[in-house]
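Colleagues,

For the teaching module next term, I've prepared a clean inverse folding example: a structure given as tokens, and then the sequence designed for it. I'd like students to try predicting residues themselves before seeing the answer, so please don't circulate the second half yet.
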């Protein structure tokens, strides 16, 4: 059975979600600046959550699940909580992780559908998204 994901048609919700991502990016980057000594760790770990896209090598279902786990705010929250309780030196990594998710959301890269990488909770990504507007 094929599941069709239909993102919201309400542009104001999409704009609000993107702005929310931008706010998360700014606050998480400020938290990183307060927690870390220098920007080298930020540069090294900024794209680390995107390694989860390798899950797509096992198919769209595994890929979407791996990507969504790495790109849900819940995952860095729990990572940060564990770091705070056991290894506070890892807190800046949690901040970078949240910043990564935030900038992704600001740019329109949302959580993925099992239909494929280009189908997100924020709508389709890529050039194909404009084809829907022309029809």
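(Answer key — instructors only)
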């Amino acid at each position: 059975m094929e599941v069709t994901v239909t993102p919201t048609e309400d542009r104001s919700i999409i704009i609000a979600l993107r702005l929310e991502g931008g706010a998360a990016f700014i606050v998480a980057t400020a938290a990183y600046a307060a927690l870390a000594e220098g920007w080298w760790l930020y540069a090294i770990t900024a794209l680390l959550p995107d390694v989860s896209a390798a899950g797509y090598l096992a198919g769209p279902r595994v890929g979407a699940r791996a990507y969504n786990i790495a790109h849900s705010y819940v995952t860095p929250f729990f990572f940060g909580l564990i770091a705070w309780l056991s290894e506070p030196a890892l807190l800046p990594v949690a901040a970078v992780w949240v910043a990564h998710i935030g900038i992704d959301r600001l740019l329109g890269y949302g959580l993925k559908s099992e239909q494929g990488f280009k189908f997100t909770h924020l709508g389709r990504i890529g050039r194909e998204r404009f084809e829907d507007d022309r029809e």
